[in-house]
Amino acid sequence: VALLAFMGLLLGIGSAFTSPTTIETFPFLGNPILQIIFSFMSTIGGFAFTFLPVLFAMAIPLGLVKYEKGVAAFSGFIGYVIMHLSINFYLNETKQLAETDQMREAGQGMVLGIQTIEMGVLGGIIVGIIVYLLHNKFYEIQLPDSFAFFGGARFVPIITSLTLAIVGILIPIIWPIFALGI
Known about the structure:
It is a single chain. By secondary structure, the chain is mostly helical. It has eight helices and two strands; from the N terminus they run ααααααββαα. It has helices at 2-18, 20-25, 32-45, 47-50, 52-64, 69-93, 121-138, 155-181, and strands at 108-111, 114-117. Strands 1-2 form a two-stranded antiparallel ribbon. It is globular. The two termini are 25 Å apart.
């Protein structure tokens, strides 16, 4: 929350001082060096809002788990990317990937360079909650000796990958029904 507030300030200040109306009112703000600085502030400030879904996917497990918080956040990122890769795979295999100029109308967009269903922050929240639940269940798992290396906290990103791969395949089937409700 603190990061969002700070980034919102950067975005707001940068955007306000690059506005043609503001520059018209205060001509000295039209200085090219100041405009570069304010544009830079807007760019940096927009980070948190552009990547808000992935931040939720990482921050929810990070904030909720009691042990191995780093593994939980790492698993949130892994789960988020794998979910979108799975959605992309399904859309591609079923010939539902929209052309670049038709993505918005099809409810699709680009997430971390992956064409996928545009789920916004809800996608990050879904991943965050799933990772939290998986982490609590599996972070202390004991595997047989031959697989012991993959046990404990190391198992969390593995089970996250598998689970969110399946979730990613199911989302394109379920999402149209869910989107109608939204």
